[in-house]
């Protein structure tokens, strides 16, 4: 069997290693440049590779193709593969056939990284042999090749879910759905929603779907579509009929199989309403996998947050600098602005993914005193907020953006980097953008 891997990053190299171990004839092809450390791994393992091109003769003879999530369906080479009827799948779909491990699959437009890391933390503290993979950490396929774990917590993007045929998580979490990556879904929100719900399509009556019961897109989809999995809703405002998470007397409560877990909200390590929901989702998983209540409580109390997600960097002359570089869509920024308790200088901008800024208007009016646009093309942001905020400035440099923000901020204010956009116009990725922000703040 010939396995062709498109993309020589973490998921691609991991898939290649697993494929080689399982006796496939493996070839890795990347249209961009493969990093030196990955080239070395491929060469040591005797895996053929190429970069900065796609040689069709070496690709179109595949029995199966693993496509890295960053490569769009409309890439010419992918179209040719599909025309030839060659299966194009995701890393998760390829790797799952070679492991008996239980998986917890986590998706959503926002909160999935925090929820994934928090779930992993709860299960690890509970003594389970658990791995962390998907959009985060070491490649899932790579870990399967090394026979690592009994349970995996997988952060799954819509792109990874698009490449699924048979994969089913035993426990799935859908944190929320809001418009994102619409450029990859023909600007059709319903296509994106359906993509997210692929997480439950193969689940059976023995499996679980944990979801935000206040999310309009989720509610509507579940009204119109039947699922087999057991439903475990969570909500800040209502109480579920059976299993699920809810708030009562300033406590977070979670009932699973008639077992109630409860703890005071003010003891949670993470702040903000959205993080109460993330905690409910992670708690439900821990209960389903029989982690002791005391361990869950301690783990929710001592969890360290996620880098680049509402990360407090420094307080300088009474101004708090906050790195929320991971906020690459409007809904993420909504959570960020909603949690601001001080007048805010907002650094925003990058590559627009089809954003509609209307839902931010009330929060911007209430909380934002000035906007620093950090992007190559800021027209859409300027048009949206020109009449809402008195001060708007533009820059294409992170250090200048931070210096401008410092001039605009007064004692007691906050400076928030929460871009609402992808980072590829000026940075390698959101991590690079966040690191540059932190460096610029330390340089003030």
UniProtKB/TrEMBL annotation:
Mur ligase central domain: residues covered: 106-286
Reaction(s) the record says it catalyses: UDP-N-acetyl-alpha-D-muramoyl-L-alanine + D-glutamate + ATP = UDP-N-acetyl-alpha-D-muramoyl-L-alanyl-D-glutamate + ADP + phosphate + H(+)
Protein name: UDP-N-acetylmuramoylalanine--D-glutamate ligase
Annotated ATP binding sites: 108-114
Principal EC category: ligase
Keywords: ATP-binding, Cell cycle, Cell division, Cell shape, Cell wall biogenesis/degradation, Cytoplasm, Ligase, Nucleotide-binding, Peptidoglycan synthesis
Gene3D superfamilies to which the protein is assigned, alphabetical: Mur ligase, C-terminal domain (3.90.190.20), Mur-like, catalytic domain (3.40.1190.10), NAD(P)-binding Rossmann-like Domain (3.40.50.720)
